Amino acid sequence: MQKLIPLEEDTTNKRTVMDYAIGMDFFSELDDTELRSVTKWIRPYKANSGVTIFEEGKQEPQLCLIADGDVSIFKEISSTEHLKIADIKSGGSIGEMGILDDEAISASAIASMDSVVFIISNVDFKKMVSENQSLGVKLLWKIGKIISLRLRKTTGLLAEVSIAKSDR
């Protein structure tokens, strides 16, 4: 089974964490000093296509930012079946809920192409926020916006399914 490869071990990649982070929407409201501070907490990895980044049910909440590539999200519907529920593109994020509620990972994430991902563990995220509260407010605000947008989208999809079901 393939695993995540620490980015510094990937000799084909010459970009730094800052190179990737500068253009990411997740960090768009941070100044250079704040961005440098965040990058100290990031563990960058290469995820080859097909590598599992998160596994549903694991008690390892962490924030994952897709610096480059694409990641597919799957929800287990039985012990042998998984439903693809989303594709997260370069610049997107996953794992936000676990950072906030410390619950188990709610869906699996698998690289759908060779990708570069940034991981910040729940423990490190909390340390970072406690050490720099103004930075923490900005990051938590961003996470709140992301979760809000996803909830709005999910609510719209649920309404569409309910309408389609009632039309039968």
Topology, please?
Blueprint lengths: L4 E2 L10 H6 L9 H8 L3 E5 L4 E3 L7 E7 L2 E8 L2 E8 L4 E2 L1 H6 L6 E4 L3 E7 H10 L1 H34 L2
Helix pairs in contact: 4-5
Instruction: Please state the overall shape, judged from the principal axes of the Cα atoms.
Output: globular
Order of strands, widest sheet: 1-2-9-4-7
CATH class: Mainly Beta
Distance between the termini: 44 Å
Number of strands: 9
Main pleated sheet: 5 strands, antiparallel
The residue ranges in which pLDDT falls below 50 over 5 or more consecutive positions are none
Look up the CATH topology.
Jelly Rolls
User: What number is the mean pLDDT?
Assistant: 92
Helix-strand topology string: EHHEEEEEEHEEHH
Tell me the domain tally.
Answer: 1
Number of helices: 5
What does the oligomeric state look like here? Answer: single chain
Strand content: 25-35%
Name given to the CATH architecture: Sandwich
Please characterize this protein's 3D structure:
- By secondary structure, this protein is an alpha+beta fold.
- It has one domain (5-166): Jelly Rolls.
- The chain contains five helices and nine strands, in the order βααββββββαββαα.
- It has a five-stranded antiparallel sheet with strand order 1-2-9-4-7. A four-stranded antiparallel sheet has the order 3-8-5-6, with no helix packed on it.
- A hairpin with a 2-residue loop joins strand 5 and strand 6.
- It is globular, with a radius of gyration of 17 Å.
Question: How would you summarize this macromolecular structure in one to three sentences?
Answer:
By secondary structure, the protein is of the alpha+beta class. The chain has five helices and nine strands, in the order βααββββββαββαα.
